[in-house]
Design brief:
Number of helices of chain A: 15
Structural class of chain B: alpha/beta
CATH superfamily of the largest domain in chain A: MetI-like
Order of helices and strands of chain B: HEEEHEHEHHHHEHEHEEH
Oligomer: heterodimer
Number of helices of chain B: 10
Structural class of chain A: mainly alpha
Helix content of chain A: over 70%
Number of strands of chain B: 9
Largest interface: A-B, 20 and 25 residues
Strand content of chain B: 15-25%
CATH class of the largest domain in chain A: Mainly Alpha
Bound molecules: adenosine-5'-triphosphate, magnesium ion
Helix content of chain B: 25-40%
Number of strands of chain A: 0
């Protein structure tokens, strides 16, 4: 081979790390007028930068063709991230990061990007290996984003009120688990779950009834769209007046929000079975209920699960927002609105993190059931030949 | 009624009394946005118990439509039709026939076994009996061993065979088959032709069978109905009298070739209306 293809990401990483060694690591202390820290004083970050230069240079030539190479790159990057954090907090660079520091972060970015890219494209016939690669990608990406957030907030010295660092949020999360647990219990376990079950369940049953009335079927979609467009901030106070301050009024808001997506999707799904399949059932003189359970409901399942997934997100948002309009002194939405008022922004963020976790887990659970229940559907069976 | 009695009836009584399918002056017009489509016009046809009737004709001549009218999936716009002496709707509600569609129409969420036993399930037949009959039907189309597979894991031809097994599973006296072997390779097709013929000879079922293949029509049938398009009508009905236990080798006999020739002539004549 005469032409060598250079790996651009590794090249960027190597050059950025090299420049990081040259440029000043931090700004100057406004009082003494001296630079706060030098690369040469912090052996950890110096070693990390040097490693980045070496690894970057090596893989620029070698290319990152193997998963093993990607692993090496990612290990180097993880070590670099650790040293960057240490430099920020242990050597006083927080709030005074300089060009050198950001160049180093750029270098790490290039490595992580390339590494994740290779892992994401990894294909193995061994289920275990493939699955761990599949899991690693989103986790690595998430961790990288958290790291970037931490570094930017600490490096630029962003005030806590504007945006706390993830570490601060994490600490707050751990130190106030009892409050968070109580809020979770109130908002998620009581309001969200009951509202979701009642909303989706009743819509499902109503959909089956509506399906037998042609004019309702046609009039439903515009009505559903209209109700979906209702602002919850208008509905929530009314529900509080009707059902009181406790979780019941939040559940009612959720019922209103989830009802129509479920209704419209189920009605659409009930008509998803093909004409041929309906003819088939007709040749067996299959009755209404028999056809419903053996053909139309199974065919509707992808639509039903679609609504269940949409609603899992809507329900949580609804409950949190509804709590802004009156609630006993517990609940995720209540906590957010009061802690914002007291400038306890890290608590607000801890609640947001809790909501994100709960929402993701909820959605994930529904998606998992969907996968099991509709594994026959073309969108799931592609990989399983 | 025993089998023998049925056969005797055919011989003694006036034809219409024991006709499985009796069609008189049947016509069907589809009203479409581009004006009416005359799918069938002035069709007269009688199918006796135990007959094997093939329908052959160019694409779009109304073969599927005719079968669908018999199956009460389509309503005729004119003429009379009775199945087993009653209206198609009653016949359908009595589960008088098994229908094999032009496409497999397997339900993707059911395994092959559960697809094949679907009609038995609807007819509320016990589980053991369902499994037993499902196995038998799958064996007949040589799909045993694929019970637990799902439709998308089977080739198109295998899916079509599964759909045939499904129609056979509940043992209706009348089989309506719309190009059941159209998607199969020549060897499998020959084999299934033989199997179907054996089944028919053994059980005295009545079969209405749509095909595009002249040899298939001649080999299988006791009666070949040649149709022509626009509007769909019957232009020739050819009776054959090959022995019931005929083998594939009769396809080389002069009698066979003669019938095949007549079918071909009929098809040609039908086509000439196009030009
Ligand atoms: N539902 C329908 N609405 C309108 N026209 C139809 C409908 N079904 C069939 N036709 C028309 O009726 C005619 C006969 O169709 P049919 O499906 O019976 O043909 P066929 O003989 O089975 O053809 P092929 O051999 O291609 O299956 C065609 O011209 C077709 O366009
Ligand atoms: Mg057809």
């Amino acid at each position: 081979m005469t032409t060598i293809k250079l790996d651009k990401f590794c090249l960027v990483a190597a050059i950025a790390a090299l420049l990081a060694l040259i440029f000043p690591l931090s700004g100057v202390d406004p009082e003494s007028g001296k630079q706060i820290a030098f690369v040469s004083d912090i052996s950890g970050i110096a070693v990390a930068m040097a490693l980045c230069v070496i690894a970057g240079a090596a893989f620029t030539w070698l290319g990152v063709g193997h998963i093993q190479y990607a692993a090496i790159i990612l290990v180097v990057a993880v070590f670099g991230c650790w040293q960057a954090i240490a430099a920020l907090y242990d050597y006083g660079i927080a709030g005074h990061a300089g060009t050198g520091f950001w160049l180093f972060i750029l270098s790490l970015w290039a490595f992580v990007w390339r590494g994740i890219d290779v892992v994401a494209r990894y294909r193995s016939l061994e289920m275990a290996k493939q699955q761990s690669a599949n899991i690693l990608v989103p986790i690595a990406f998430g961790v990288w984003l958290l790291f970037l957030w931490e570094v930017i907030v600490a490096g630029f010295g962003v005030p806590q009120v504007l945006l706390p660092a993830p570490s601060a949020i994490g600490l707050r999360f751990i130190s106030s688990t009892d409050i968070l647990a109580a809020d979770f219990q109130q908002t998620f376990i009581k309001a969200v779950i009951s509202g979701y079950v009642i909303g989706c369940g009743s819509a499902f049953i109503v959909a089956i009834a509506v399906d037998r009335v042609p004019f309702l079927k046609r009039g439903l979609l515009p009505l559903g769209n209209m109700v979906s467009a209702l602002p919850i901030i208008g509905v929530a106070p009314i529900m509080v007046m009707w059902f009181g301050f406790d979780w019941q009024s939040k559940a009612a808001v959720i019922v209103i929000m989830t009802f129509f997506p479920m209704l419209v999707n189920t009605v659409t799904g009930l008509n998803a079975a093909g004409a041929l399949e309906k003819d088939l059932m007709a040749t067996y003189a299959s009755g209404y209920w028999s056809t419903l359970f053996r053909l139309r409901l199974p065919a509707a399942m992808p639509f039903v699960f679609n609504a269940l997934k949409i609603n899992s997100t809507l329900a949580l948002i609804g409950a949190i927002v509804a709590e802004f309009f009156g609630t006993p002194i517990v609940g995720m939405g209540f906590r957010i609105s009061t802690e914002v008022g007291r400038m306890n922004v890290d608590m607000v963020w801890a609640e947001i993190a809790l909501a994100a976790l709960a929402g993701t887990a909820f959605y994930g659970a529904v998606a998992y059931v969907e996968r099991k229940a509709t594994s026959w559907h073309p969108s799931f069976r592609v990989r399983r030949h | 009624m025993t089998l023998k009695a049925v056969v005797n009836n055919v011989a003694q009584m006036p034809a219409s009394a024991d006709a499985v399918v009796d069609i008189q002056k049947l016509s069907l017009t589809f009203q479409t946005a581009d004006g009416p489509v005359y799918a069938l016009s002035d069709v007269d046809l009688k199918i006796e118990r135990g007959e094997f009737v093939s329908f052959i004709g160019p694409s779009g001549c109304g073969k599927t439509t005719l079968l669908r009218v018999i199956a009460d999936l389509e309503k005729a716009t004119g003429g009379d039709i009775s199945i087993n002496g009653v209206s198609p709707q009653e016949a359908r509600e009595n589960r008088a026939y098994g229908y094999v569609f032009q496409a497999p129409a397997l339900l993707p969420w059911r395994s092959i076994e559960r697809n094949v036993t679907l009609p038995l399930e609807i007819m509320e037949i016990s589980r053991e009996e369902r499994i037993k009959r499902g196995h038998e039907a799958l064996k007949l189309v040589e799909l045993n061993g694929f019970e637990k597979k799902f439709p998308w894991q089977l080739s198109g031809g295998m899916q079509q065979r599964a759909s045939i097994a499904r129609a056979l599973s509940f043992d209706a006296d009348l089989l309506l088959m719309d190009e059941p072997f159209g998607a199969l390779d020549e060897i499998v097709r020959d084999h299934l032709n033989e199997q179907l013929l054996k089944l028919w000879a053994r059980t005295n079922k009545t079969v209405a069978f749509v095909t595009h293949s002249i040899p298939e029509a001649v080999y299988l049938s006791t009666k070949i109905v040649v149709m022509s398009p626009r509007p769909g009508r019957i232009i020739d009905v050819i009776k054959t009298d090959f022995p019931k236990d005929r083998g594939l080798d009769i396809r080389e006999t002069p009698e066979f070739l003669e019938v095949a020739h007549r079918v071909r002539e009929g098809l040609r004549a039908g086509h000439s209306y196009d030009e």
